[in-house]
Amino acid sequence: xxxxxxxxxxxxxxxxxxxxxxxxxxxxxxxxxxxxxxxxxxxxxxxxxxxxxxxxxxxxxxxxxxxxxxxxxxxxxxxxxxxxxxxxxxxxxxxxxxxxx
Length: 101
What we know:
Order of helices and strands: HHH
Shape: elongated
Mean pLDDT: 94
Number of helices: 3
Helix content: over 70%
Number of domains: 1
């Protein structure tokens, strides 16, 4: 049981880092600090875009426009952190009731 909660927590944590990396890459590409014509840069940026965009797109549709500032990664990170807290509380509750190992 603990292994399942650890795995979920680790997956959420890795996804939060993927969101942060994707946001930083997006900024670096937008300000031409990184060259998107470089195949390695393009491949890395494309990977993070494909990993994060399916989850961010519905949030972007619901958020109001903030003059070009994309707050969807921040909203998603806050939701994922709330999910981590909820999973920790569920794990503690299961351990208190003697269900966990």
